[in-house]
Design goal:
Blueprint: H1 4-8, E1 14-18, H2 30-37, E2 40-44, H3 74-79, H4 81-94, H5 98-107, E3 112-115, H6 121-129, H7 137-149, H8 155-167
Parallel strand pairs: 1-2, 2-3
Helix pairs in contact: 4-5, 4-7
Length: about 170
Amino acid sequence: MASGDDALGQPVVSNQVQFSLAHADPLEDLVPFAQRENRMVIAYSPLAQGLLGGKYSPDNRPGGIRAANPLFGTENLHRVAPLLDTVREVARAHDVRPSQVALAWLLSLPQVVVIPGASSVEQLEFNVAAADLELDADSQTALTQAARAFIPISAARTFVAEFRDKFGI
């Protein structure tokens, strides 16, 4: 099977992937590859559709399109609590917002850039300010460990769990 470089006849210099503290799989292979081969990882949904902002919980679930995202299912909101606690703790220590910590964690990784969304000028300003946040080694390690420990249930299991909750089965 040909590599992306071979297929295009030139190096693939970047790869845009879903990457955040809640979707940390690229840490294991893609980030080391990018660093080794001088490529870029472009992290989309770096705040996991707002999950890493810290305002959602099993008792405060989002509506709209987010409600369909398995990350916002009741079970996953329970499972993500330790990760969110770590993000909030680091945010308090640096006097910043949890979303800024989540972005700063990604930006501190080699060869990684982020594409955060913003629905207001204030959010945009906070996102930009995250680039100036330097996480200490202990915070970086704690966040990475919490991200690796978060294992969400699948979309299918989320659907079954939500169905059971709704109909009391």
